[in-house]
Amino acid sequence: MIRRLCVIGVGLIGGSLARALRQAQAVGEVVGAGRDPRHLQQAVELGVIDRYSTDLAEAVSGADMVVVCVPLGAMEAVFRRIAPALESEAVLTDVGSAKGCVVAAARAAFGAPPPRFVPGHPIAGTEKSGVAASFAELFVRHRVILTPLATTDPEAHARVRAMWEAAGAEVVDMDVALHDEVLAATSHLPHLLAFTTVDTLARMHDHEEIFRYAAGGFRDFTRIAASDPVMWRDICLFNRDAILAVLGRFRDELAEVEQAVREGDGAALLERFRRAKAARDAHAALLNRQESGDRKSEVGSQKSEGRNS
Amino acid sequence: MIRRLCVIGVGLIGGSLARALRQAQAVGEVVGAGRDPRHLQQAVELGVIDRYSTDLAEAVSGADMVVVCVPLGAMEAVFRRIAPALESEAVLTDVGSAKGCVVAAARAAFGAPPPRFVPGHPIAGTEKSGVAASFAELFVRHRVILTPLATTDPEAHARVRAMWEAAGAEVVDMDVALHDEVLAATSHLPHLLAFTTVDTLARMHDHEEIFRYAAGGFRDFTRIAASDPVMWRDICLFNRDAILAVLGRFRDELAEVEQAVREGDGAALLERFRRAKAARDAHAALLNRQESGDRKSEVGSQKSEGRNS
Predict the structure, then answer these.
(1) Domains of chain A (ranges plus CATH)?
(2) Are A164 and A122 in contact (CB under 8 A)?
(3) A307 has a pLDDT exceeding 50
(4) Which pick of A18, A46, A113, B31 has the fewest CB atoms within 10 Å?
(5) Nearest residue, CB atoms, A215 vs list B187, B257, B285
(6) What is the ipTM of this complex?
Protein backbone atom coordinates (compact mmCIF):
# COMPACT_ATOMS: atom_id res chain seq x y z
CA MET A 1 0.00 0.00 0.00
CA ILE A 2 1.30 3.41 -1.00
CA ARG A 3 0.35 6.24 1.33
CA ARG A 4 1.15 9.15 -0.96
CA LEU A 5 2.18 8.62 -4.59
CA CYS A 6 3.88 11.42 -6.47
CA VAL A 7 3.73 11.11 -10.27
CA ILE A 8 6.10 13.45 -12.08
CA GLY A 9 4.84 13.78 -15.65
CA VAL A 10 1.14 12.87 -15.74
CA GLY A 11 0.77 11.55 -19.30
CA LEU A 12 -0.28 8.22 -20.78
CA ILE A 13 2.00 6.12 -18.57
CA GLY A 14 1.92 8.13 -15.33
CA GLY A 15 -1.81 8.73 -15.64
CA SER A 16 -2.56 5.08 -16.34
CA LEU A 17 -0.45 3.98 -13.35
CA ALA A 18 -2.32 6.38 -11.05
CA ARG A 19 -5.67 5.18 -12.37
CA ALA A 20 -4.66 1.51 -11.96
CA LEU A 21 -3.45 1.97 -8.37
CA ARG A 22 -6.57 3.88 -7.43
CA GLN A 23 -8.76 1.20 -8.96
CA ALA A 24 -6.83 -1.48 -7.02
CA GLN A 25 -7.17 0.61 -3.86
CA ALA A 26 -3.41 0.36 -3.56
CA VAL A 27 -2.80 4.08 -3.01
CA GLY A 28 -3.98 6.74 -0.59
CA GLU A 29 -3.31 10.14 -2.14
CA VAL A 30 -1.96 10.89 -5.62
CA VAL A 31 -0.01 14.09 -6.19
CA GLY A 32 0.80 15.10 -9.75
CA ALA A 33 3.76 17.21 -10.79
CA GLY A 34 4.88 18.78 -14.04
CA ARG A 35 5.43 22.02 -15.88
CA ASP A 36 2.00 22.79 -17.34
CA PRO A 37 -0.71 23.66 -14.76
CA ARG A 38 -3.52 23.40 -17.35
CA HIS A 39 -2.46 19.87 -18.13
CA LEU A 40 -2.28 18.98 -14.43
CA GLN A 41 -5.66 20.60 -13.81
CA GLN A 42 -7.09 18.36 -16.54
CA ALA A 43 -5.63 15.34 -14.70
CA VAL A 44 -7.44 16.49 -11.52
CA GLU A 45 -10.70 16.91 -13.43
CA LEU A 46 -10.33 13.43 -14.94
CA GLY A 47 -9.93 12.06 -11.41
CA VAL A 48 -6.44 10.76 -12.16
CA ILE A 49 -4.70 12.79 -9.42
CA ASP A 50 -5.95 14.45 -6.24
CA ARG A 51 -3.85 17.61 -6.45
CA TYR A 52 -0.75 18.91 -8.13
CA SER A 53 2.22 21.21 -7.93
CA THR A 54 4.51 22.64 -10.58
CA ASP A 55 7.21 22.84 -7.90
CA LEU A 56 8.80 19.40 -7.96
CA ALA A 57 10.40 19.72 -4.51
CA GLU A 58 7.02 20.59 -3.02
CA ALA A 59 5.34 17.78 -4.95
CA VAL A 60 7.62 15.01 -3.62
CA SER A 61 7.47 16.28 -0.05
CA GLY A 62 5.73 13.69 2.14
CA ALA A 63 5.46 11.12 -0.67
CA ASP A 64 6.53 7.55 0.10
CA MET A 65 6.60 6.60 -3.62
CA VAL A 66 7.84 8.86 -6.42
CA VAL A 67 7.47 7.75 -10.05
CA VAL A 68 9.23 9.84 -12.69
CA CYS A 69 7.44 9.64 -16.06
CA VAL A 70 9.24 12.25 -18.17
CA PRO A 71 11.18 11.94 -21.45
CA LEU A 72 14.71 10.59 -21.00
CA GLY A 73 16.23 14.00 -21.71
CA ALA A 74 14.47 15.52 -18.70
CA MET A 75 15.46 12.83 -16.16
CA GLU A 76 18.63 14.39 -14.78
CA ALA A 77 17.05 17.82 -14.29
CA VAL A 78 14.09 16.24 -12.47
CA PHE A 79 16.41 14.18 -10.24
CA ARG A 80 18.42 17.31 -9.37
CA ARG A 81 15.31 19.26 -8.41
CA ILE A 82 13.80 16.54 -6.21
CA ALA A 83 17.07 15.37 -4.60
CA PRO A 84 16.98 17.84 -1.68
CA ALA A 85 13.27 17.25 -0.98
CA LEU A 86 12.88 13.45 -1.15
CA GLU A 87 11.82 11.88 2.14
CA SER A 88 14.50 9.54 3.48
CA GLU A 89 12.13 6.55 3.35
CA ALA A 90 10.70 7.46 -0.08
CA VAL A 91 11.13 4.95 -2.90
CA LEU A 92 12.07 6.47 -6.26
CA THR A 93 11.46 4.81 -9.63
CA ASP A 94 11.05 5.81 -13.25
CA VAL A 95 9.46 4.50 -16.45
CA GLY A 96 12.14 5.47 -18.99
CA SER A 97 12.47 3.41 -22.18
CA ALA A 98 16.24 3.07 -21.73
CA LYS A 99 17.89 2.36 -18.41
CA GLY A 100 21.65 2.97 -18.71
CA CYS A 101 21.08 6.68 -19.24
CA VAL A 102 18.66 6.95 -16.30
CA VAL A 103 21.14 5.27 -13.97
CA ALA A 104 23.78 7.73 -15.25
CA ALA A 105 21.39 10.64 -14.65
CA ALA A 106 20.75 9.45 -11.09
CA ARG A 107 24.50 9.10 -10.52
CA ALA A 108 25.04 12.67 -11.78
CA ALA A 109 22.20 14.18 -9.75
CA PHE A 110 22.61 12.28 -6.49
CA GLY A 111 26.39 11.63 -6.56
CA ALA A 112 25.61 7.90 -6.70
CA PRO A 113 22.38 6.03 -7.53
CA PRO A 114 20.38 6.20 -4.28
CA PRO A 115 19.75 2.77 -2.65
CA ARG A 116 16.01 3.47 -2.72
CA PHE A 117 16.05 4.21 -6.47
CA VAL A 118 14.73 1.28 -8.58
CA PRO A 119 14.98 1.87 -12.35
CA GLY A 120 11.95 0.49 -14.20
CA HIS A 121 10.32 0.25 -17.60
CA PRO A 122 6.73 -0.85 -18.29
CA ILE A 123 6.57 -2.57 -21.71
CA ALA A 124 3.20 -1.08 -22.47
CA GLY A 125 1.86 1.94 -24.19
CA THR A 126 0.21 3.00 -27.37
CA GLU A 127 1.18 5.55 -30.00
CA LYS A 128 -1.02 7.99 -28.09
CA SER A 129 0.23 10.38 -25.46
CA GLY A 130 -1.28 12.64 -22.81
CA VAL A 131 -3.36 12.05 -19.70
CA ALA A 132 -6.61 11.99 -21.69
CA ALA A 133 -5.41 8.77 -23.30
CA SER A 134 -4.63 7.08 -19.96
CA PHE A 135 -6.62 4.10 -18.72
CA ALA A 136 -6.37 1.83 -15.70
CA GLU A 137 -5.94 -1.42 -17.66
CA LEU A 138 -2.90 -0.33 -19.71
CA PHE A 139 -0.49 -2.56 -17.77
CA VAL A 140 -2.70 -5.60 -17.29
CA ARG A 141 -0.84 -8.69 -18.53
CA HIS A 142 2.03 -6.51 -19.73
CA ARG A 143 5.57 -6.83 -18.51
CA VAL A 144 7.41 -4.34 -16.39
CA ILE A 145 11.18 -4.68 -16.43
CA LEU A 146 13.06 -3.54 -13.33
CA THR A 147 16.82 -3.09 -13.51
CA PRO A 148 17.92 -2.87 -9.85
CA LEU A 149 21.61 -2.24 -9.19
CA ALA A 150 23.87 -4.12 -6.78
CA THR A 151 23.41 -1.22 -4.36
CA THR A 152 19.61 -1.17 -4.59
CA ASP A 153 17.74 -1.66 -1.29
CA PRO A 154 15.80 -4.99 -1.53
CA GLU A 155 12.87 -3.48 0.35
CA ALA A 156 12.60 -0.60 -2.14
CA HIS A 157 12.83 -3.12 -4.97
CA ALA A 158 10.02 -5.16 -3.42
CA ARG A 159 7.82 -2.07 -3.04
CA VAL A 160 8.20 -1.11 -6.72
CA ARG A 161 7.48 -4.70 -7.73
CA ALA A 162 4.35 -4.73 -5.57
CA MET A 163 3.20 -1.42 -7.06
CA TRP A 164 3.34 -2.74 -10.64
CA GLU A 165 1.75 -6.04 -9.66
CA ALA A 166 -1.12 -4.09 -8.10
CA ALA A 167 -1.51 -2.41 -11.51
CA GLY A 168 -1.86 -5.86 -13.09
CA ALA A 169 1.62 -6.19 -14.61
CA GLU A 170 4.09 -9.09 -14.63
CA VAL A 171 7.35 -7.85 -13.17
CA VAL A 172 10.74 -9.21 -14.26
CA ASP A 173 14.27 -8.15 -13.34
CA MET A 174 16.97 -7.59 -15.91
CA ASP A 175 20.50 -6.32 -16.25
CA VAL A 176 20.66 -2.67 -17.34
CA ALA A 177 22.75 -3.30 -20.48
CA LEU A 178 20.66 -6.28 -21.57
CA HIS A 179 17.50 -4.23 -21.16
CA ASP A 180 18.87 -1.51 -23.40
CA GLU A 181 19.98 -3.99 -26.05
CA VAL A 182 16.68 -5.90 -26.04
CA LEU A 183 14.60 -2.73 -26.25
CA ALA A 184 16.78 -1.29 -29.01
CA ALA A 185 16.03 -4.43 -31.05
CA THR A 186 12.32 -4.92 -30.36
CA SER A 187 11.12 -1.37 -29.89
CA HIS A 188 13.59 1.34 -30.85
CA LEU A 189 14.59 -0.16 -34.23
CA PRO A 190 10.96 -0.77 -35.32
CA HIS A 191 10.00 2.79 -34.33
CA LEU A 192 12.89 4.24 -36.35
CA LEU A 193 11.92 2.11 -39.35
CA ALA A 194 8.24 3.05 -39.10
CA PHE A 195 9.01 6.78 -38.80
CA THR A 196 11.44 6.53 -41.73
CA THR A 197 9.01 4.57 -43.91
CA VAL A 198 6.22 7.11 -43.45
CA ASP A 199 8.61 10.02 -43.96
CA THR A 200 10.03 8.44 -47.14
CA LEU A 201 6.56 7.97 -48.60
CA ALA A 202 5.34 11.39 -47.48
CA ARG A 203 8.18 13.02 -49.38
CA MET A 204 7.36 11.29 -52.68
CA HIS A 205 5.65 13.55 -55.20
CA ASP A 206 2.51 11.43 -55.45
CA HIS A 207 2.20 10.73 -51.73
CA GLU A 208 -1.55 11.46 -51.68
CA GLU A 209 -2.15 8.69 -54.18
CA ILE A 210 0.22 6.42 -52.31
CA PHE A 211 -1.45 6.74 -48.92
CA ARG A 212 -4.90 6.43 -50.48
CA TYR A 213 -4.21 2.87 -51.54
CA ALA A 214 -2.48 1.67 -48.41
CA ALA A 215 -4.18 -1.31 -46.81
CA GLY A 216 -4.33 -2.94 -43.40
CA GLY A 217 -0.77 -4.25 -43.43
CA PHE A 218 0.57 -0.74 -43.93
CA ARG A 219 -1.65 0.63 -41.18
CA ASP A 220 -0.34 -1.90 -38.67
CA PHE A 221 3.26 -1.48 -39.83
CA THR A 222 3.18 2.29 -39.45
CA ARG A 223 0.94 2.64 -36.39
CA ILE A 224 3.95 3.34 -34.16
CA ALA A 225 4.96 6.25 -36.43
CA ALA A 226 2.18 8.21 -34.70
CA SER A 227 4.14 8.06 -31.42
CA ASP A 228 5.40 11.13 -29.57
CA PRO A 229 8.35 12.66 -31.51
CA VAL A 230 10.01 14.21 -28.43
CA MET A 231 9.98 10.93 -26.52
CA TRP A 232 11.52 9.15 -29.51
CA ARG A 233 14.14 11.82 -30.14
CA ASP A 234 15.23 11.34 -26.54
CA ILE A 235 15.33 7.56 -26.85
CA CYS A 236 17.61 7.92 -29.90
CA LEU A 237 19.87 10.32 -28.04
CA PHE A 238 19.98 8.39 -24.78
CA ASN A 239 20.12 4.78 -25.99
CA ARG A 240 22.43 5.67 -28.84
CA ASP A 241 25.00 2.89 -28.63
CA ALA A 242 22.52 0.02 -28.41
CA ILE A 243 20.43 1.55 -31.22
CA LEU A 244 23.45 2.06 -33.48
CA ALA A 245 24.50 -1.56 -32.93
CA VAL A 246 21.18 -3.07 -34.03
CA LEU A 247 20.61 -0.43 -36.70
CA GLY A 248 23.99 -1.31 -38.22
CA ARG A 249 23.05 -4.99 -38.36
CA PHE A 250 19.73 -4.12 -39.96
CA ARG A 251 21.33 -1.77 -42.48
CA ASP A 252 23.78 -4.46 -43.58
CA GLU A 253 21.03 -7.04 -43.95
CA LEU A 254 18.86 -4.63 -45.91
CA ALA A 255 21.78 -3.94 -48.26
CA GLU A 256 22.01 -7.69 -48.92
CA VAL A 257 18.26 -7.83 -49.58
CA GLU A 258 18.54 -4.89 -51.97
CA GLN A 259 21.37 -6.61 -53.80
CA ALA A 260 19.35 -9.82 -54.08
CA VAL A 261 16.39 -7.88 -55.53
CA ARG A 262 18.67 -6.06 -57.98
CA GLU A 263 20.30 -9.31 -59.13
CA GLY A 264 16.99 -11.18 -59.25
CA ASP A 265 18.41 -13.73 -56.79
CA GLY A 266 15.20 -15.54 -55.92
CA ALA A 267 16.94 -18.27 -53.92
CA ALA A 268 18.57 -15.75 -51.58
CA LEU A 269 15.28 -13.87 -51.10
CA LEU A 270 13.33 -17.06 -50.45
CA GLU A 271 15.87 -18.24 -47.88
CA ARG A 272 15.62 -14.94 -45.98
CA PHE A 273 11.84 -14.74 -46.11
CA ARG A 274 11.50 -18.35 -44.98
CA ARG A 275 13.88 -17.81 -42.08
CA ALA A 276 11.99 -14.67 -41.04
CA LYS A 277 8.58 -16.33 -41.30
CA ALA A 278 9.82 -19.30 -39.28
CA ALA A 279 11.08 -16.96 -36.54
CA ARG A 280 7.86 -14.92 -36.56
CA ASP A 281 5.70 -18.05 -36.44
CA ALA A 282 7.85 -19.62 -33.68
CA HIS A 283 7.50 -16.53 -31.55
CA ALA A 284 3.86 -15.86 -32.33
CA ALA A 285 2.68 -17.36 -29.07
CA LEU A 286 5.02 -15.13 -27.08
CA LEU A 287 4.04 -12.09 -29.12
CA ASN A 288 0.36 -12.83 -28.66
CA ARG A 289 0.51 -13.44 -24.92
CA GLN A 290 -0.53 -9.90 -24.15
CA GLU A 291 -3.20 -9.93 -26.82
CA SER A 292 -6.22 -8.98 -24.78
CA GLY A 293 -4.46 -6.08 -23.12
CA ASP A 294 -3.18 -4.74 -26.43
CA ARG A 295 -6.55 -5.13 -28.07
CA LYS A 296 -7.94 -2.58 -25.66
CA SER A 297 -5.10 -0.20 -26.47
CA GLU A 298 -5.73 -0.55 -30.18
CA VAL A 299 -9.40 0.23 -29.84
CA GLY A 300 -8.40 3.34 -27.98
CA SER A 301 -5.79 4.22 -30.58
CA GLN A 302 -8.29 4.05 -33.39
CA LYS A 303 -10.46 6.53 -31.60
CA SER A 304 -7.45 8.76 -31.17
CA GLU A 305 -6.56 8.52 -34.83
CA GLY A 306 -10.11 9.36 -35.76
CA ARG A 307 -9.89 12.54 -33.71
CA ASN A 308 -6.60 13.57 -35.23
CA SER A 309 -7.66 13.25 -38.81
CA MET B 1 -24.09 -13.23 -62.70
CA ILE B 2 -21.30 -15.67 -63.48
CA ARG B 3 -22.44 -18.98 -64.91
CA ARG B 4 -19.26 -20.97 -64.35
CA LEU B 5 -16.30 -19.51 -62.47
CA CYS B 6 -12.89 -21.11 -62.79
CA VAL B 7 -10.45 -20.26 -59.99
CA ILE B 8 -6.86 -21.21 -60.78
CA GLY B 9 -5.01 -21.37 -57.45
CA VAL B 10 -7.54 -21.94 -54.66
CA GLY B 11 -5.80 -20.29 -51.69
CA LEU B 12 -6.67 -17.41 -49.39
CA ILE B 13 -7.61 -15.00 -52.20
CA GLY B 14 -9.14 -17.38 -54.72
CA GLY B 15 -10.97 -19.28 -51.99
CA SER B 16 -12.32 -16.12 -50.39
CA LEU B 17 -13.53 -14.82 -53.77
CA ALA B 18 -15.37 -18.09 -54.45
CA ARG B 19 -16.94 -18.02 -50.99
CA ALA B 20 -18.01 -14.38 -51.39
CA LEU B 21 -19.60 -14.92 -54.81
CA ARG B 22 -21.45 -18.00 -53.61
CA GLN B 23 -22.71 -16.12 -50.56
CA ALA B 24 -23.87 -13.27 -52.83
CA GLN B 25 -25.53 -15.82 -55.14
CA ALA B 26 -23.52 -14.23 -57.94
CA VAL B 27 -22.14 -17.48 -59.34
CA GLY B 28 -23.55 -20.78 -60.63
CA GLU B 29 -20.78 -23.36 -60.59
CA VAL B 30 -17.25 -22.95 -59.21
CA VAL B 31 -14.44 -25.05 -60.71
CA GLY B 32 -11.08 -25.08 -58.96
CA ALA B 33 -7.77 -25.72 -60.64
CA GLY B 34 -4.22 -26.18 -59.42
CA ARG B 35 -1.39 -28.63 -59.04
CA ASP B 36 -2.17 -30.38 -55.77
CA PRO B 37 -5.27 -32.63 -55.81
CA ARG B 38 -5.29 -33.01 -51.99
CA HIS B 39 -5.42 -29.27 -51.62
CA LEU B 40 -8.24 -29.00 -54.18
CA GLN B 41 -10.11 -31.86 -52.50
CA GLN B 42 -9.93 -29.90 -49.25
CA ALA B 43 -11.48 -26.92 -51.06
CA VAL B 44 -14.35 -29.16 -52.19
CA GLU B 45 -14.85 -30.45 -48.65
CA LEU B 46 -14.89 -26.91 -47.30
CA GLY B 47 -17.63 -26.07 -49.82
CA VAL B 48 -15.45 -23.44 -51.52
CA ILE B 49 -15.54 -25.09 -54.97
CA ASP B 50 -17.91 -27.60 -56.58
CA ARG B 51 -15.28 -29.65 -58.43
CA TYR B 52 -11.72 -29.40 -59.63
CA SER B 53 -9.19 -30.42 -62.21
CA THR B 54 -5.41 -30.41 -62.19
CA ASP B 55 -5.57 -30.04 -65.99
CA LEU B 56 -5.85 -26.29 -66.51
CA ALA B 57 -7.18 -26.55 -70.07
CA GLU B 58 -9.94 -28.86 -68.88
CA ALA B 59 -10.68 -26.60 -65.91
CA VAL B 60 -11.28 -23.43 -67.98
CA SER B 61 -13.36 -25.26 -70.58
CA GLY B 62 -16.93 -23.90 -70.45
CA ALA B 63 -16.08 -21.18 -67.90
CA ASP B 64 -17.33 -17.65 -68.59
CA MET B 65 -15.05 -16.16 -65.89
CA VAL B 66 -11.48 -17.29 -65.17
CA VAL B 67 -9.59 -15.82 -62.20
CA VAL B 68 -5.88 -16.62 -61.93
CA CYS B 69 -4.70 -16.56 -58.29
CA VAL B 70 -1.15 -17.94 -58.52
CA PRO B 71 2.20 -16.39 -57.54
CA LEU B 72 3.53 -13.91 -60.10
CA GLY B 73 6.23 -16.32 -61.22
CA ALA B 74 3.62 -18.86 -62.33
CA MET B 75 1.44 -16.46 -64.36
CA GLU B 76 3.01 -16.90 -67.77
CA ALA B 77 2.99 -20.71 -67.61
CA VAL B 78 -0.68 -20.68 -66.53
CA PHE B 79 -1.59 -18.30 -69.37
CA ARG B 80 0.20 -20.53 -71.89
CA ARG B 81 -1.64 -23.63 -70.71
CA ILE B 82 -5.12 -22.09 -70.74
CA ALA B 83 -4.70 -20.05 -73.96
CA PRO B 84 -5.86 -22.82 -76.33
CA ALA B 85 -8.82 -23.79 -74.13
CA LEU B 86 -10.36 -20.45 -73.11
CA GLU B 87 -13.90 -19.96 -74.41
CA SER B 88 -14.10 -17.03 -76.84
CA GLU B 89 -16.58 -15.16 -74.59
CA ALA B 90 -14.69 -15.97 -71.36
CA VAL B 91 -13.42 -13.06 -69.28
CA LEU B 92 -9.92 -13.54 -67.85
CA THR B 93 -8.57 -11.71 -64.82
CA ASP B 94 -5.90 -12.19 -62.16
CA VAL B 95 -5.13 -11.06 -58.60
CA GLY B 96 -1.37 -10.52 -58.87
CA SER B 97 0.28 -8.00 -56.53
CA ALA B 98 2.14 -6.34 -59.42
CA LYS B 99 0.57 -5.61 -62.78
CA GLY B 100 3.27 -4.72 -65.29
CA CYS B 101 4.72 -8.23 -65.14
CA VAL B 102 1.28 -9.86 -65.52
CA VAL B 103 0.55 -7.78 -68.62
CA ALA B 104 3.95 -8.82 -69.96
CA ALA B 105 3.19 -12.47 -69.18
CA ALA B 106 -0.14 -12.21 -71.04
CA ARG B 107 1.62 -10.59 -74.00
CA ALA B 108 4.17 -13.40 -74.05
CA ALA B 109 1.60 -16.18 -73.73
CA PHE B 110 -1.15 -14.82 -76.01
CA GLY B 111 0.96 -12.82 -78.49
CA ALA B 112 -0.84 -9.69 -77.24
CA PRO B 113 -2.93 -9.06 -74.09
CA PRO B 114 -6.36 -10.49 -74.99
CA PRO B 115 -9.17 -7.89 -75.15
CA ARG B 116 -11.13 -9.89 -72.58
CA PHE B 117 -8.19 -9.95 -70.12
CA VAL B 118 -8.63 -7.43 -67.25
CA PRO B 119 -5.63 -7.26 -64.89
CA GLY B 120 -6.72 -6.86 -61.27
CA HIS B 121 -5.42 -6.68 -57.70
CA PRO B 122 -7.55 -6.91 -54.54
CA ILE B 123 -5.90 -4.83 -51.78
CA ALA B 124 -6.86 -7.33 -49.14
CA GLY B 125 -5.34 -10.33 -47.47
CA THR B 126 -3.77 -11.40 -44.27
CA GLU B 127 -0.39 -12.94 -43.55
CA LYS B 128 -2.12 -16.30 -43.76
CA SER B 129 -2.26 -18.43 -46.86
CA GLY B 130 -4.17 -21.49 -48.04
CA VAL B 131 -7.84 -22.25 -48.61
CA ALA B 132 -8.47 -23.09 -44.95
CA ALA B 133 -7.82 -19.41 -44.14
CA SER B 134 -10.31 -18.13 -46.75
CA PHE B 135 -13.51 -16.38 -45.73
CA ALA B 136 -16.33 -14.70 -47.65
CA GLU B 137 -15.92 -11.25 -46.06
CA LEU B 138 -12.22 -10.76 -46.92
CA PHE B 139 -12.95 -8.15 -49.59
CA VAL B 140 -15.78 -6.29 -47.90
CA ARG B 141 -14.95 -2.57 -47.84
CA HIS B 142 -11.52 -3.28 -49.34
CA ARG B 143 -10.34 -1.84 -52.61
CA VAL B 144 -9.75 -3.79 -55.77
CA ILE B 145 -7.56 -2.04 -58.33
CA LEU B 146 -8.16 -2.89 -61.99
CA THR B 147 -5.57 -1.84 -64.56
CA PRO B 148 -7.37 -2.23 -67.93
CA LEU B 149 -5.37 -1.52 -71.07
CA ALA B 150 -6.36 0.63 -74.03
CA THR B 151 -7.25 -2.57 -75.86
CA THR B 152 -9.39 -4.02 -73.04
CA ASP B 153 -13.00 -4.81 -73.95
CA PRO B 154 -15.28 -2.47 -71.89
CA GLU B 155 -17.82 -5.26 -71.41
CA ALA B 156 -15.14 -7.57 -69.95
CA HIS B 157 -13.97 -4.72 -67.72
CA ALA B 158 -17.54 -4.18 -66.51
CA ARG B 159 -17.96 -7.88 -65.72
CA VAL B 160 -14.81 -8.01 -63.59
CA ARG B 161 -15.89 -4.84 -61.80
CA ALA B 162 -19.32 -6.34 -61.10
CA MET B 163 -17.73 -9.56 -59.80
CA TRP B 164 -15.65 -7.71 -57.20
CA GLU B 165 -18.55 -5.46 -56.24
CA ALA B 166 -20.64 -8.58 -55.64
CA ALA B 167 -17.85 -9.70 -53.27
CA GLY B 168 -18.26 -6.43 -51.36
CA ALA B 169 -15.21 -4.56 -52.67
CA GLU B 170 -14.80 -1.00 -53.92
CA VAL B 171 -13.36 -1.13 -57.41
CA VAL B 172 -11.06 1.55 -58.82
CA ASP B 173 -9.15 1.76 -62.10
CA MET B 174 -5.50 2.71 -62.26
CA ASP B 175 -2.63 2.93 -64.68
CA VAL B 176 -0.40 -0.17 -64.64
CA ALA B 177 2.81 1.71 -63.81
CA LEU B 178 1.20 3.83 -61.09
CA HIS B 179 -0.25 0.68 -59.51
CA ASP B 180 3.18 -0.90 -59.36
CA GLU B 181 4.77 2.23 -57.88
CA VAL B 182 2.02 2.71 -55.25
CA LEU B 183 2.10 -0.92 -54.17
CA ALA B 184 5.90 -0.97 -54.01
CA ALA B 185 5.68 1.93 -51.55
CA THR B 186 2.74 0.87 -49.37
CA SER B 187 3.03 -2.90 -49.42
CA HIS B 188 6.22 -4.28 -50.92
CA LEU B 189 8.62 -1.98 -49.01
CA PRO B 190 6.93 -2.62 -45.62
CA HIS B 191 6.99 -6.38 -46.22
CA LEU B 192 10.70 -6.29 -47.06
CA LEU B 193 11.40 -4.24 -43.93
CA ALA B 194 9.33 -6.52 -41.70
CA PHE B 195 11.00 -9.67 -43.07
CA THR B 196 14.43 -8.06 -42.66
CA THR B 197 13.72 -6.83 -39.13
CA VAL B 198 12.65 -10.26 -37.91
CA ASP B 199 15.56 -11.94 -39.70
CA THR B 200 18.04 -9.45 -38.22
CA LEU B 201 16.78 -10.10 -34.70
CA ALA B 202 16.52 -13.86 -35.20
CA ARG B 203 20.21 -13.96 -36.11
CA MET B 204 21.34 -12.15 -32.96
CA HIS B 205 22.92 -14.45 -30.40
CA ASP B 206 20.36 -13.64 -27.69
CA HIS B 207 17.31 -13.76 -29.97
CA GLU B 208 15.28 -15.84 -27.49
CA GLU B 209 15.64 -13.13 -24.88
CA ILE B 210 14.91 -10.47 -27.46
CA PHE B 211 11.63 -11.94 -28.73
CA ARG B 212 10.51 -12.69 -25.16
CA TYR B 213 10.32 -9.01 -24.32
CA ALA B 214 8.74 -7.77 -27.53
CA ALA B 215 5.46 -5.94 -26.98
CA GLY B 216 2.39 -5.05 -29.00
CA GLY B 217 4.11 -2.52 -31.24
CA PHE B 218 6.60 -5.14 -32.39
CA ARG B 219 3.84 -7.66 -32.97
CA ASP B 220 1.94 -5.28 -35.24
CA PHE B 221 5.10 -4.13 -37.00
CA THR B 222 6.21 -7.67 -37.82
CA ARG B 223 2.84 -9.34 -38.46
CA ILE B 224 3.39 -9.19 -42.23
CA ALA B 225 6.68 -11.10 -41.82
CA ALA B 226 4.52 -14.22 -41.41
CA SER B 227 3.39 -13.87 -45.04
CA ASP B 228 4.00 -16.51 -47.71
CA PRO B 229 7.73 -16.48 -48.66
CA VAL B 230 7.19 -17.76 -52.21
CA MET B 231 4.62 -15.09 -52.99
CA TRP B 232 6.98 -12.39 -51.69
CA ARG B 233 10.01 -13.75 -53.50
CA ASP B 234 8.00 -13.49 -56.72
CA ILE B 235 6.84 -9.95 -55.94
CA CYS B 236 10.49 -8.92 -55.47
CA LEU B 237 11.48 -10.56 -58.73
CA PHE B 238 8.54 -9.28 -60.78
CA ASN B 239 8.11 -5.73 -59.44
CA ARG B 240 11.85 -5.23 -59.20
CA ASP B 241 12.23 -1.77 -60.69
CA ALA B 242 9.49 -0.12 -58.63
CA ILE B 243 10.74 -1.83 -55.46
CA LEU B 244 14.35 -0.81 -56.08
CA ALA B 245 13.25 2.80 -56.61
CA VAL B 246 11.42 3.11 -53.28
CA LEU B 247 13.92 0.93 -51.44
CA GLY B 248 16.71 3.25 -52.59
CA ARG B 249 14.85 6.29 -51.25
CA PHE B 250 14.28 4.49 -47.95
CA ARG B 251 17.90 3.34 -47.68
CA ASP B 252 19.14 6.91 -48.21
CA GLU B 253 16.74 8.30 -45.59
CA LEU B 254 17.68 5.60 -43.10
CA ALA B 255 21.37 6.45 -43.62
CA GLU B 256 20.56 10.05 -42.69
CA VAL B 257 18.68 8.89 -39.60
CA GLU B 258 21.62 6.70 -38.60
CA GLN B 259 23.98 9.63 -39.02
CA ALA B 260 21.73 11.84 -36.88
CA VAL B 261 21.66 9.19 -34.14
CA ARG B 262 25.45 8.79 -34.31
CA GLU B 263 26.02 12.56 -34.11
CA GLY B 264 23.37 13.04 -31.42
CA ASP B 265 21.58 15.51 -33.71
CA GLY B 266 18.32 15.80 -31.78
CA ALA B 267 16.97 18.62 -33.96
CA ALA B 268 17.28 16.56 -37.14
CA LEU B 269 15.65 13.53 -35.49
CA LEU B 270 12.82 15.60 -34.05
CA GLU B 271 12.11 17.20 -37.45
CA ARG B 272 11.89 13.80 -39.14
CA PHE B 273 9.74 12.20 -36.44
CA ARG B 274 7.36 15.19 -36.40
CA ARG B 275 7.01 15.11 -40.18
CA ALA B 276 6.33 11.36 -40.09
CA LYS B 277 3.80 11.64 -37.26
CA ALA B 278 2.00 14.48 -39.07
CA ALA B 279 1.78 12.38 -42.24
CA ARG B 280 0.59 9.31 -40.32
CA ASP B 281 -2.01 11.33 -38.41
CA ALA B 282 -3.20 13.09 -41.58
CA HIS B 283 -3.71 9.81 -43.33
CA ALA B 284 -5.14 7.94 -40.35
CA ALA B 285 -8.70 8.47 -41.52
CA LEU B 286 -7.88 6.98 -44.91
CA LEU B 287 -6.00 4.13 -43.30
CA ASN B 288 -8.86 3.44 -40.91
CA ARG B 289 -11.59 3.49 -43.54
CA GLN B 290 -11.36 -0.25 -43.98
CA GLU B 291 -11.12 -0.84 -40.25
CA SER B 292 -14.04 -3.16 -39.72
CA GLY B 293 -13.06 -5.38 -42.61
CA ASP B 294 -9.47 -5.64 -41.42
CA ARG B 295 -10.50 -6.32 -37.87
CA LYS B 296 -12.10 -9.53 -38.99
CA SER B 297 -8.92 -10.50 -40.81
CA GLU B 298 -6.86 -9.83 -37.71
CA VAL B 299 -9.03 -12.00 -35.52
CA GLY B 300 -8.51 -14.76 -38.06
CA SER B 301 -4.78 -14.17 -38.13
CA GLN B 302 -4.46 -14.48 -34.38
CA LYS B 303 -6.10 -17.86 -34.53
CA SER B 304 -3.72 -18.82 -37.28
CA GLU B 305 -0.70 -17.68 -35.29
CA GLY B 306 -1.94 -19.67 -32.33
CA ARG B 307 -2.03 -22.79 -34.47
CA ASN B 308 1.42 -22.22 -35.86
CA SER B 309 3.15 -21.80 -32.56
Answers:
(1) 2-174 (3.40.50.720), 179-263 (1.10.3660.10)
(2) yes
(3) no
(4) A46
(5) B187
(6) 0.86
